[in-house]
Every structure is written in C-alpha cells, then in structure tokens.
Write a structure and sequence with these properties.
87 residues; five-stranded antiparallel sheet; alpha+beta; globular
Length: 87
C-alpha cells in the first residue's frame, strides 16, 4: 500500500458507531483523535507524520495508566486490529 497522508489515514478508519468522539489530540509530528470506548477507557488513535504510519494508545482513567496497543501500522492494519481486539 502506498504511504497514506494523515487525512487519508483517518478517512479510511472504520470507527465503531458506539465509540464516542472526545477530542482532537495533535502533538508535534503526530495527529490524533481520542475516543471513549467505555466508561473510563479512552483510545488515542494517532498518525505519526514522520513515518506516515499510525497506532492506538489506550488510556485507562480508573487505573491511571497508558499502553500502546498497536504502532507503526497503516489504516488497513489498524482497522483489522479494531475488528479483532476492540469490538
């Protein structure tokens, strides 16, 4: 697959309708969107602009921790991960 732009990456994502959009979370070299998937569990889906790849970070507000679920992937791989592990 040809490298995606940030816009193409986010346009191609298949976000479940049950996920509640929280906010945009952009940082230097990274474009992100935050979704609440259940009470106290938030996901930041990000696109790293230097590598043209994305990933997902889980934030558990109850336990006050963060962990990378998947990293350095294109939108197709992110969609597969969401379908297999987060729905």
């Amino acid at each position: 697959m040809k490298d995606e732009t940030a816009q193409q990456f986010f346009d191609n994502l298949q976000i479940p309708a049950s996920w509640r959009f929280g906010k945009y979370a952009d940082y230097p070299n990274s474009v992100g969107r935050v979704y609440e998937i259940k009470p106290g569990i938030w996901l930041r889906i990000f696109f790293f602009t230097l590598a043209n790849r994305g990933g997902i970070v889980e934030c558990n507000m109850k336990e006050n921790n963060k962990k990378i679920l998947i990293d350095n992937k294109n939108s197709t791989s992110i969609n597969e991960y969401i379908q297999q592990n987060l729905i």
